[in-house]
Amino acid sequence: MTNILISGGGVAGPALAFWLRRHGFNPTVVERAPALRTGGYKIDVRGAALEVVDRMGLREEVARNGTDMRIARFVDATGRQLATMSAQLFGGREGDDVEIMRGDLARILHDATKDDVEYLFDDSVTALEETADGVRVTFENGPPRTFDLVVGADGLHSTVRALAFGAESSYVHDLGHYISICTVPNHLDLDRTEVMHPAPGRSAGMYATARTADAKAMFLFAAPPLPYDRRDLAGQRRLLAEVFAGQGWEVPRLLDATAEAPDFYFDSISQVHMDRWSSGRVVLVGDAAYGPSPASGQGTSLALVGAYVLAGSLAASGGDHRAAFAAYEDDLRHFVQENQKLAAANLKGMVLKSAAQIRFQMFLLRLMPHLPGRNGMIRRVTEPIRKAATAITLKDYGRASSSAS
User: Where is the signal peptide (predicted)?
Assistant: First the structure.
């Protein structure tokens, strides 16, 4: 049986493990965190990714754990409402698209794989040595082991990518914006509602989803590349406070709440661009290979579809990992490119440059419900996302090939 190590226990890793087991492989997932990461933010599952979830038999479970968001509100510095829109339109969703908390999706995928997949929590890969017939992997805590193949599903700042392909700076491209998200008390008593306060060059918000007592705070801002230590959370909080100093609404209170947040997250909004996603017996999937950035709204969908295609390509390869990796790239490259294109256009609407642009955007949002042809306008807004989300025809890879055993 082909033994495959997957580094990363978020979405891409467990999704890949699911399909590898379905095809008869023996996956092991290693995750740096001491336990399953249950935090995170709202993510969307749409188009081809929803079809993948359906083929996993998890569609009802995913839909049952949806956020059930109802409305998005925009307010000024005093809290006065400027405009509203449906949560579906705000998120660019239509039809059966599902919005779910990232932690809930990770839990669902873990539950679907934990009985027949080995999980190694509180550990990480520190070295890779390719041999004639495998990869010797050194771990931070556990003893070295040899696997037939290694997959990096460990996100934007992938350790496996750094070990197998070189410095992150060659592949991770800053889009000129930063994002911070964390859990905060729901002091506004929001109920399946998102509130956004836009200001020139920056935007702050807060939302509460179904079945949760707390809320999420979110900060977005435009900036040139900033020097900061990814491990220094206190420094990141100070940087965030400096950027949002003087902004009204609930921003001061939300900034104070970040100090107590157990899941404070801060990072650049970046994309990953690589000429190839494999090197020898090592291959990348999800954000590690082609992260489209949170601005695209398609990172999770790319991870789910990428995991499906990679596992299926391995099953169909007849034991030739080189052929499998080549097929994986050929089948997925166009889908990745189309979804990465969404980020730049989305960012323009998420963080506006001037007060005049904000006033004009709010005016359009207030006017839209009263315009003739409103539905056509909405379809034009969601069309780019729909086209990108369905820009691949999924193959039916069938059951395991004999090469898996």
Answer: none
Confidence tier at 318 by pLDDT (50, 70, 90): confident
Both tokens of 275, joined, read 């000429």
Which sequence spans correspond to the domains of the chain?
Answer: 3-67+102-172+271-351
Tell me if the pTM is above 0.85. yes
CA 294 to the chain's CA centroid: 6
* Cα-only R_g, the chain: 21
Mean pLDDT of 193-214: 96
Q: What angle, rounded to 10 degrees, do the helices at 299-316 and 48-56 form?
A: 60
User: 394 exposed, middle or buried (CB, 10 Å; 0-12, 13-18, 19+)?
Assistant: middle
Cβ-in-10-Å burial (0-12, 13-18, 19+) of 375 comes to exposed
- Rounded CA-CA distance 307/287 in Å is 11
- Of 17-21, 202-206, 211-215, 285-289, give the lowest mean pLDDT range: 211-215
What are the angstrom distances between the C-alpha of 39 and each of 49, 209, 232, 302, 342? 21, 13, 19, 20, 25
The Cβ of residue 140 has, within 10 Å, a number of other Cβ atoms equal to 13
Q: Could you give the percent of the chain with pLDDT greater than 90?
A: 84
- Considering only CA atoms, which of 361, 357, 286 is closest in space to residue 6? 286
CA distance linking residue 354 with residue 359, whole number of Å: 9
Half-sphere exposure of 166 (CA within 13 A, CB side): 5
